[in-house]
Amino acid sequence: MLYIILAVIAVLICFFLLIMYFDCNRFVTITYDMESEKLSKEYSFVLLSDLHNKSYGKDNEKLLTEIEKLAPDAVLVAGDMMTAQKGEKFRTALCLMEHLAAKYPVYYGMGNHEYRAGLYPEQYGSIYEEYMGGLRACSIEPLINETVTLPSANISICGLQMDRCYYQRFRKYPMKETYLPELLGQPQKDKFQILIAHNPDYFAEYAKWGADLVVSGHVHGGLMCLPYLGGVVSPKLTLFPKYDGGRFKEGNTEMILSRGLGTHTLPIRIFNPGELIQIRLHPVSSNKQ
User: Who has the most CB within 10 Å: 95, 236, 240, 277?
Assistant: First the structure.
């Protein structure tokens, strides 16, 4: 009987290792559609998050080919394309950004890894300055608590960079009501406001601030996705996070949360492949029934 149990365990381990290898090396494309009276024309984005220097094919050719098929008007980046780790290189992430910037406008929001690399140069050396310099050299200006507008579509895009205290493990650090307005200013109510906010845990606060659409990442889909239960563990080491991946609604605000494209520290993805997200925005008349 013991041999049978051990054999079953061995088969299960091999099965999950195979799934993990497969899911760590593939991505799926997910499309979301959203309507708003504020939009003045059709507009489409692709959303990238949490690449962590992963490459799908040489120089991410598989990812670039799929993006080209989607033919977006622009690219949204929800952070953590590189990894803040001693000795880590960023060339893979920067190469992807260079290819994208040559074809599309790229709106880059900061993740906790980009932020951490800049916050502790004594630990990470010149990675941050070199990476930021590389982005700017290909005409990508990271949105660090800044806003850009797309007048032709009546869209406003703001990139949020929060303090590290909002990435604490084991608990959600409380956010004052004045924190976002003081950091970002007030959104323009007549424009369709997109907020690039890497950490989805503060979705309710983003909605109160006035975002129409929040795009996030950070959670990597919870590493492993279980039926009915969703993602298993969050980066702050809590089980079954409320926000693991997908589409969420808070009042009049929606959040599209990417499960990311890569991994770091724990290279685990089980029933949880990487995600390339397409967001299609549609204008709707106020008279529509």
Answer: 277
- The 10s digit of each residue's pLDDT in 176-194 is 999 999 999 999 899 999 9
Element at 65 (helix H, strand E): helix 61-70
Angle separating helix axes 127-137 and 112-119, nearest 10 degrees: 120
In 85-232, which ranges are continuous DSSP H helix? 91-101, 112-119, 121-124, 127-137, 179-184, 203-209
How far, in Å, CA of 106 to CA of 281, rounded?
Answer: 17
Burial class (CB in 10 A: 0-12, 13-18, 19+), 69: exposed
Q: Is 265 left (phi over 0), alpha (psi -120 to 50) or beta?
A: left
Direct distance between the N- and C-terminal alpha carbons of the chain, in angstroms, rounded to an integer: 66
What value, to the nearest 5°, has the Cα angle with vertex 113 and ends 125 and 149? 115
Per DSSP, the three-state class of 159 is strand
Integer CA distances (angstroms), 55 to 60, 100, 172, in order: 5, 14, 32
Q: Tell me the C-alpha distance between 70 and 68, whole Å.
A: 5
Query: Between vectors from CA 137 to CA 256 and to CA 275, what angle results, nearest 5°?
Result: 25
2-56 pLDDT, tens per residue?
777 877 778 778 887 888 888 899 999 999 999 999 999 999 999 999 999 999 9
Residues 280 and 42 sit within 8 Å (Cβ to Cβ): yes
CA distance 102 to 108: 15
Tokens of 128: 């941050």
